Amino acid sequence: MADVLMGPTPEIENSKDVTDLVLQDILAGVLLPGTWLKQIDLERRYKCTRPEVRRALDRLAQKRLVEHVPNRGYHVYEPDGRRAREVSEIRIILETAVAGTILKNASADDLDTLRKLAVHFDRMVLDGTMLELYEANLAFHRQLLVLGGNQELVDLVAEIRQRTSSAPVAQWRTRARIEQSGREHHLMIDAIQHKDAEELKRLVRQHIIQN
């Protein structure tokens, strides 16, 4: 496992939660899986106090993005294949279960919002950073699940997504897969528009397994 990378210290607004700053670096691949997170290094990097760093690491440990090893410290979580498969199975169960409700609730304005989010993802494929692409993907899927009418489900899926991979680059092994994800977003919208619940379920299942 590598030690935390110490690059130029960014300028940080005091109002921003240190948890978000560490999480952003994890999602962006700045802090890779297995990286040991030395608290003194994080203090310097984010210009914050030791208690703030400790609270941030504890919160991330709860999300399973960071692992606490007693008497050793914290490191960025290293997911295993079994865990990834099992989380994918859970996501498929949860996200396909609300397909019918999504079709029932989706209005023309909702479809327009989804289409704009899908187009934004496509634009990030061409011009965005990996973190921007990752966030665009999350925004699309969150909005899709919102149409299921169950906020607890939306929050639960958001939380378990973070258990499988700490860096977005791990979700798409090739550019072809990234582009395929974009096409699937549009196909999901088409399925909703055509009131085809089975097609929506198929696309969601395919999307989760291949991502």
TrEMBL record:
Q: Which residue ranges does the record assign to the HTH gntR-type domain?
A: 12-79
Per its UniProt record, what InterPro entries does this chain match? GntR_C, TF_FadR/GntR_C, Tscrpt_reg_HTH_GntR, WH-like_DNA-bd_sf, WH_DNA-bd_sf
Q: Which domain of life is it from?
A: Bacteria
Q: Which SMART domains match?
A: FCD (SM00895), HTH_GNTR (SM00345)
MF terms in GO: DNA binding; DNA-binding transcription factor activity
As recorded in UniProt, coiled-coil segments are none
What's in the keyword line of the UniProt record? Answer: DNA-binding, Transcription, Transcription regulation
Q: Name one Pfam family in it.
A: GntR
What name goes with this protein? Answer: DNA-binding transcriptional regulator, GntR family
- State the organism named in the record: Rhizobium mongolense subsp. loessense
